[in-house]
Amino acid sequence: MPRLSIAVGTMYGGALDVAEQVKPLFEEAGYEVDILEQPVLADITDSTPDLVLFCVSTTGSGDFPGNFVPFVRDLQTQSPSLSSLSYGLIALGDSSYGDTFCGAGRRLDELLSDLGARRLGERLEIDAMETFMADDAALPWVEEWLASEQLPVNS
Length: 155
What we know:
Layout: E1 3-9, H1 14-28, E2 32-36, H2 42-45, E3 51-57, H3 69-78, E4 86-93, H4 103-114, E5 118-119, E6 124-127, H5 135-147
Parallel strand pairs: 1-2, 1-3, 3-4, 4-5, 4-6
Helix pairs in contact: 1-5
């Protein structure tokens, strides 16, 4: 059974809510799913899940939420090779912040790519100004993502 880790970066719980809402879709597709509310680097380097989905909110002026800062700091300082990591990314933000909209998700995407990780599909950016319930955008995106032939699935 393929294993999916959902790494959550959240300030007020919105990204965690998205993770909890999409988890059953992956389970129905045959994945064993772990939600990581306090992700650490070892979650993606030592245990090597088949797939990681990052659900990350942006806070302040494009900053990472507090629970996610140690994870990002370790990525930056340790610079591990992530060439075996396949991931997806759901970024949550507020377009009224202009240039820093979804800044945490965009910065994470760039950092993961620089370390050799491979993003599967497009990054989903959810705008709080347009989407009241983030899972309204996340659920159809995950369904499309699961339907893509790039993901490891249980045959």
